[in-house]
Amino acid sequence: MAKYLIISILIITLSGCNNRQKTINEKSKPDILFILIDDQAWNVLGKDGRYPFLKTPNLDQLSKEGLVFENAFVTTSLCSPSRACFMTGCYAHTNGVYINSYSDPDPGVPFLPKVLQKAGYETAFLGKWHMKRGSEPREGFDYWLSFDGQGKYIDPDLNENGREFIEKGYMTDILTDYAVRWLEKPREKPFCLFLWHKAVHAPFTPAPRDSSAFGDAMIPEYENWYDDMEDKPEWLRRGWYYGVHNQPWKESEGKPVPDKIEPKPWDPKIPRVMNYLRAMLAVDESYGRIRNTLEELDILDNTIIVFSSDNGYFIGAHQRGDKRLMYEESIRIPLIIRYPDIVEAGSRNTEFVLNTDIAPTLIELAGAEVPGEMQGASLVPLLNNEAVDWRESFLYEYFQEAYAPGFVTMTGVRNKKYKYIEYPNLTGDINELYDLEMDPGEMDNLINSPEYQSVKSGMIKELEKLKAETGYFDPGVYKE
Asked: pTM here?
């Protein structure tokens, strides 16, 4: 009897040793899940309270379990450039993706999935690529499921590892189904899964089950809805009045531009905004399913979860849709990171963090060497809640494109109190300066205010400094 007891104890002990060794190995190489939403404004989750009728329990839970970055920004508020910034840790002028549908990142620039592959990771990309046109698989990914350009919400055309087909159903659900199946496959390596949704990009299309959600809801009035743009650049009013896209912009050349735009009356049930918010419901459900899968596989707490958006969105602020401009609604993004190994649940951080910071962060957490060419900074010290010197300002850039030339080339700098925006290719128009403490809605352009001339001079110097540090140049990619 004693003999069998000793053998049993030995088996249990050896089994425990094996389990511990597996745990140690897993902790040295965490799995990675990077969820990216398209055009999600930074403050539209249920936890934010901006839309009291919108409930996102799964993503609210993520914020309770992770670290919420309250001042996260993109360096270019446009789909293709921002996605390249996430993948390369470099500004658009460096990574070569200057405008939408122009190119994939310059092969000479560091590329996050390739760095992770070299570090022993299995990589997968599912969702919206939207850089160079074409759905074909890209280098750096062991598994690929994507589509050309914007894709479709209903019954989309997909490309799985080179096989093209049509999948019946709703895009957000389809991508989630494939992601769950991929996660459930046996593997010997740690993984990095990029789940980059089409949602919630226009045309705002909720899942059929959510098409009538919020039937009696009323949208709270935006404080900066009533922007008449009287003290703002003329080109902004021209685009708003005549149109920003190629043909109407060309036809408006030389036509009179109003001195101000009379705001439309507030509509508490704006159809576009309602459908935008309805599309968020499937995104929330998607994360809930993914989280449950990680939990069932017993890898949830060893998985770094990053949740963010490729840019912000106005959804009516300043009476605008879209993004591109350097106003807060356009450049601020949600950013939540969950990784219990180092991140305190329910924590908050107010430092300036950028989309260029994600690649170096994940590379460091994966135990690999961060390429020196990356222009972002690893967030690991912030995840560890360390007291470190951090950036006090950042550079913003946007390059005019033929699709929507009514958004001109711009650069700008934002610090904790002020924002300065300039339009280097325009003559005879004005730039913009905002006191964000006094005017968080950016309604009052102070560029010509006598009291703010010293502030303007300081911001111009800071902008030139950041341009020099990042090697900024205008690639001049606008083409008729």
From this structure: 0.93
